[in-house]
Specification:
The protein is an alpha+beta fold and 375 residues long. Helix content is 23%, strand content 32%. The chain has 10 helices and 25 strands. A 5-stranded mixed sheet has the order 3-2-1-6-18. Strands 19-20-22-21 form a 4-stranded antiparallel sheet, covered by helices on one side. A 3-stranded antiparallel sheet has the order 4-5-10. A hairpin with a 5-residue loop joins strand 2 and strand 3. One of its GO terms (molecular function) is sedoheptulokinase activity.
Length: 375
């Protein structure tokens, strides 16, 4: 492959969100974003399991490939590092060594999923309160909730054990992408993502293996935990022009990354409104969270970087409310037979939708949902 004459070097940043994928190229010298692209994944799937919330990895990876392909080829050839973040808590399963296929499509070298499960997202509600109360108490300061990776695996252990037997490893969707890019046989998971799964002690940086084994939990599926900010490996193949052997960092939590991107100093507080919403601030150096969960506390402590913690007050309502509102309006318009609501893209810093007159005589652009607040 002929290398580009572009003398600049770039870092590729990827975020695999609940509703969209965002990518950026950052110039390593100026530290400025030179290119960016965003697309909705439209990956939600129907499911016969009550309260289940799943997404199709094939649609997610297809959207990722389309986003990468939209960036300038000469710049992609000069990418020197790749950083990945994504939606936390969720879990998907795959078979080591056969979790994806590499090949050429549309004049680009890429991978696509093979022998994987659906992504069970953080919005999954199949674990009832009664089910959660039947689980062992974790050795962690964080409670276990429905939608958390370990809780979801416990649910399958009870209700679909044959499903778990099909796979050899598990991780979040962004852990999966890193594992496929690097050709890893074993999933590596940052402490940020591990803590979001439950049954992970952030002080010892270890899974609660004894507790899980005593409950029959398939610990073989657990990823190997690594420090947040370290590298997971090198790309095993050229990818959309990005050279083989490019360093890839272990996937990080989208929440921690959103705070890191705008926290100007340690005394700042950050309000992040995305699919959900969180108000957070950094705890002092040396802070240690409580030894046991405090389920009724309005504040939780999430691992950040370099052994520090963020104090977080979270809400389940955020951009998901706006998305539901838009879907409702679209359904009303179609029922009235007047307008059809179509995704257009971004206008400035806002997501844009088009109310198209069914007579095709005009299209009114309506912008809503801040880009930076859209998972």
């Amino acid at each position: 492959m002929a290398m580009s004459s572009n003398s600049h070097k770039y870092v590729l940043g990827i975020d695999l969100g609940t509703t969209s994928i965002k990518i950026v190229l950052v110039d390593t010298q100026s530290k400025k974003v030179t290119d960016s692209y965003t697309l909705p994944t439209k990956a939600d799937t129907s499911n016969t399991v009550e309260h289940a919330k799943e997404q199709d990895p094939e649609r997610i990876i297809d959207t990722l490939n389309r986003c990468i392909a939209a960036l300038p080829r000469d710049k992609l050839q000069n990418v020197t590092k790749i950083g990945v973040s994504g939606q936390m808590h969720g879990v998907m399963f795959w078979k080591a060594r056969t979790g994806c296929s590499w090949g050429s499509r549309d004049s680009a070298h890429m991978f696509w999923p093979r022998e994987t499960s659906q992504l069970i997202t953080w919005q999954d509600r199949r674990c009832s309160s009664d089910f959660l109360s039947s689980l062992p108490q974790p050795d962690s300061h964080l409670s276990v909730a429905t939608g958390f990776g370990c809780a979801t695996i416990f649910w399958h252990l009870k209700n679909r054990p044959e499903f778990l037997a099909e796979f050899t490893t598990a991780g979040t969707i962004h852990d999966y992408v890193v594992a496929m890019l690097c050709g890893l046989d074993k999933c590596l998971m940052s402490t940020q993502n591990a803590a979001s799964w439950g049954y992970f002690n952030t002080s010892s940086h270890q899974w609660n293996l004894d507790i899980l084994k005593d409950s029959g939990f398939p610990v073989r599926l657990l990823p190997d935990a690594v420090k947040s900010g370290c590298y997971a490996g090198l790309t095993c193949s050229e990818w959309h022009g990005i050279p083989s052997q490019t360093p890839v960092a272990a996937a990080l939590g989208d929440f921690q990354c959103s705070v890191y991107s705008c926290m100007t100093d340690r005394t700042s507080a950050v309000l992040n409104i995305s699919t959900s919403a969180q108000l957070s601030f950094a705890m002092p150096d040396g802070f240690k969270p409580p030894a046991t969960p405090e389920p009724y506390s309005p504040v939780s402590y999430f691992p950040y970087f370099d052994g520090s913690y963020l104090a977080v007050a979270a809400s389940l309502n955020g951009g998901n409310v706006m998305a539901t509102f838009v879907e409702m309006l679209s359904a009303w318009m179609k029922e009235l037979g007047k307008y059809d609501l179509k995704w257009v893209g971004y206008v400035g810093d806002k997501a844009a939708y088009c109310y198209r007159d069914l007579s095709n005589r005009h299209c009114l652009i309506v912008s809503c949902i801040l880009r930076n607040g859209c998972r």
